[in-house]
Amino acid sequence: MLAFAIRPEYLPRLSAILATIAATPEAYVAGFLRTLLETLIGFAAGVVVGVLNGILFLRAPVLRDMLFPIFVVSQTIPVIAFGALVVLWFGNTLLAKAVIAFYLTFFPVTVNTLLGLQSVDPRQIALLRSFGASGRQLLLRLMLPAALPQIFVALRLGASLSLVGAIVGEWFGDTTGLGVILLQAMYTEQVTVMWAAILCAALLGTGFYAAVSLAERWLVFWGAEQ
Length: 226
Fold this sequence. Notes:
Elements: H1 14-23, H2 25-59, H3 61-75, H4 79-90, H5 94-118, H6 122-130, H7 135-170, H8 178-188, H9 191-219, H10 221-224
């Protein structure tokens, strides 16, 4: 860092950060796994609810007109403010962190699922109906597969947002998690510990994003070829 005149208290050497992790690996492993679990639960719930919302809004435009503005307004609430309410309701539990991760995930999945379903070629729908396809068959065999590219755009975004929600949730009080390590390091001014937690969070986020992208390549193989 001397070549760029960056002081170690601002950006420590990578070797110092790795040495900090090696000094207490149990804390970082436990924090990594706890944050990963919160992220996965919130992400999975957000995906399920978001896809179901998109299908419901397509089938029931009146319901979409009633609920969609409420969803939009809910997303204008800062996650810090919403997180405080969630922790007040559910306590400092894993569920509370997962709910905050869910809050940041379900809306983009809802929007992109709806957009993907609406973008299906009406001629394809008419063709399948002419062969006697039911509404369920249309949804499962045509509309959802056609909407997958749009849905995966939201899933890649949700992979990052759910991690943010889990970490922010841990700031309201917990004993384990990368967010807990970050907060404690900030208060005690332990810069290398803070960077170690950031590095672990970056690895978690990168790995999660890569997993979603890999699933997209496998499921949306026609999109990957373009």
